[in-house]
Prior knowledge:
With 291 residues, the protein is an alpha/beta fold. It is 41% helix and 17% strand. The protein folds into 2 domains: 32-115, Rossmann fold (3-Layer(aba) Sandwich); 141-266, Rossmann fold, CATH 3.40.50.720. The strands form 3 sheets. It has a 6-stranded parallel sheet with strand order 1-11-8-7-5-6. It has a 3-stranded parallel sheet with strand order 3-2-4, sandwiched between helices. Strands 9-10 form a two-stranded antiparallel ribbon.
Amino acid sequence: MIQPLILDGKAAAKVIRAELARRVAELEVRGVKPGLRILLVGSDPASQVYVSSKEKASAGIGVSACVERLPESASFADVAGVIESWNRDPAVHGFIVQLPLPRGIDAYAVLKLVSPARDVDGLSPASLGALASGRPGFMPATPLGIIELLWRNGITVSGKRVVVVGRGELVGRPLASMLLLHGERGDATVTVCHSRTPDLGAVCRTAEILVVAVGRARLVTGAMVSEGVVVVDAGTNSIDGRLVGDVDFATVAPRAAAITPVPGGVGPMTVAMLLANTVKAAEQAAGKREL
Length: 291
């Protein structure tokens, strides 16, 4: 039985936040205070928790984070007005629209309004299109966090066979594009699986690195993976009040060389990468100011 390396997202995120805090301090010496804005529409309980964690993490490294809260009854015009004001505000270096949005508000139309220069979530059509074309700007936080977590644990993706289970716009699709980029954090051979993939287990067993992000609790079992695989579980599901992933940890971990826990794996890295994008946006703005 293999004793897998636990890919500890909490520990990696703590190190990243310390690195970012030093960069924020350097910006403040130059008179720049990184500013993050978060738009929260409605009262989705999970979104409330996520936004609170982003506020807390921002404050911890010196980023000025403010949340604009709109009621469930807010219109598209209300949301658009906030975004357009943030696109123009020089004190706002980056902002995000917390998803999901209430019914009746088209998320795609909303994200189209976000300036790519301030899209620190990396989820606007312009940002995703740039990524797919191989010329990325800001990249989506969760896929970026996955690659960073692997990198910081000495696991490179270059030349590896990577199977991504899930083709969603938040993780699966952008992650596949990122893994195909040139460079030591890319250059992988990527297979993307989904609900119509026949014999999912057979495909998963070809993976040297397996990433699962579908939102189906314990979908991937030990019988579906090869010995020595690196497993990244980006799923979060609630069962009897407990968070569990898309991977059946109990049966997969004994066959894995490395594996992320749920919780404590990918989640903390998502927030850390959002902050990293925000600090990068502030540094870019500061550089333009000095030209």
